[in-house]
Amino acid sequence: MFSSYPNALEDFRSLYQSQTLSDIIIQTTSATFPAHKTMLCAGSSKLRKLFSIGKSPATLKMENLEVDTVSRLLLFLYTDSLGNIKWKTATKLYHVAFDYQIERLKIKCSCFFLENLKVSNAANLMKLACEHQDLRLKSLVKDFISLRYKS
Fold first, then answer.
1. What is the C-alpha radius of gyration for the chain, rounded to an integer number of angstroms?
2. Which residues on adjacent β-strands are paired with residue 59?
């Protein structure tokens, strides 16, 4: 009955898409994305610290990230949704989650990995978990591997 009414996440998506009152530009090597510092601060403790000290920048350079990764990152920060992603995209977002201290994104990516965990990708996921010292994910992958290779 109430599903036809808009919700806050739809409002945030609309705010992002319309670029209304955006106050920062995120810049990659080949694209720019107008955004809202408040939304970035809400999701990222690293950006919250950056914007809280002194005069915050008008442009945030993310030149080491691909356009698609930044686009998906922003969509996540505004809507809490990963959308339809593949393993490679989730891996890139997982790295960004650690770099920018975005706990919700780290958890969502970890859930995606675990839902799609197979013998063929377990070693890569273990490497990723070790690289980021993600003890919880490492333990779950280790359990998966142990169960698969028990005698």
1. 18
2. 25
